[in-house]
Amino acid sequence: MISVNSTDFLHESIRDHIISSEKVAHVQIGNNAEHALLVLTKTGYSSIPVLDPQYRLKGLLSMGMITEAILGLERIEYERLSGMKVDELMQTDVPVIGINTEFRRVFDLLINHPFLCVEDEEEMFAGIMTRRVLMKKLKKAVYTMPR
Ligand code: AMP
C-alpha cells in the first residue's frame, strides 16, 4: 500500500515489515543453557525466542535469565550451564501479535518491549516486529508531515 498521508502507515499491516522467522536467531526447547548463552553472546541480542521443533513460540530467553539461574553465593557457576534446559529458564508470559496486526496496535506493547513475537494464521512463529522498525516508520511520518 502506498501512503498518501504521513500517518497512513498506522492502518497498514505489519506483515511486510517484520524480521521473518528464518532471519531470527532463536533456540529450541530442549537446548541447554550453554548453547543459549553462546547464541545470545554471538548475536549480541538481549533476548531471543524459544521455539519448538514445529516452529511454535514457547517463550523468550535473555542473558539475565541465564546468569540469574547460575548465580551462586560467591560466584557465577558456569559449570551448571550444560545441565540446564532453556525450558526451565525461559519466560513464558510473552506478548504475541498476529501477522495482520495494524501498526497503530503495536505502540503500547513496543513501549515496554524492544520487540514483539509475531504468529501467522496457523499460530506458527512468523518473525518479530522490532521497536527499531516502528521508530523508523514514525521518523519518516514526522519528517513528511506538513509544517
Ligand atoms: P533492534 O530493534 O534491532 O535493536 O532489536 C531489538 C531486540 O530485538 C534485540 O535486542 C533482540 O532481542 C531482538 N532482535 C532483533 N533482531 C533480531 C534477530 N535477527 N534475531 C533475534 N532477535 C532479534
UniProtKB/TrEMBL annotation:
Gene3D superfamilies in alphabetical order: CBS-domain
Organism: Bhargavaea ullalensis
InterPro entries: CBS_CbpB, CBS_dom, CBS_dom_sf
Domain CBS: 19-77
Alphabetical list of SUPFAM superfamilies matching this protein: CBS-domain pair (SSF54631)
Record's protein name: Transcriptional regulator
PROSITE patterns with a match to the protein in the record: CBS (PS51371)
Entry keyword set: CBS domain
